[in-house]
Write a structure and sequence with these properties.
The chain is mostly helical and about 100 residues long. It has 3 helices and no strands.
Length: about 100
């Protein structure tokens, strides 16, 4: 049977640092993809309003692909965030300041 090695407070600090960085990266992906979808929706709304005289025709196929790609990015980032929060109870079990015992 394998024995588990004890983790030092420094190792716990590095684990929490990595978890915090991963959370920030996922939140950035959510924010960027969500913002891109909102921008596309606003652009589409401006296209659907009354057309200006002499306006150019817009091909909607690239817009469909953009919605699909940004929607997929939003879904993947959301599922990653949900999976991270659900699968790492050890990272949640530690307090926000793991080095209180150093003082």
């Amino acid at each position: 049977m394998q024995e588990t090695a004890e983790t030092s407070p420094l190792q716990l600090l590095f684990i929490e640092l990595r978890v915090g960085l991963a959370r920030s990266a996922i939140q950035a992906a959510l924010l960027l993809n969500g913002g891109a979808i909102v921008a596309l929706l606003l652009f589409l709304a401006s296209l659907m309003s009354t057309p200006a005289p002499g306006a150019l025709a817009v091909n909607l196929v690239p817009l469909k692909w953009a919605f699909a790609i940004f929607g997929l990015g939003l879904f993947i980032a959301g599922m990653t965030f949900w999976r991270k929060e659900r699968s790492h109870p050890a990272a949640q079990a530690h307090s926000a300041t793991p080095c209180d015992d150093w003082a």
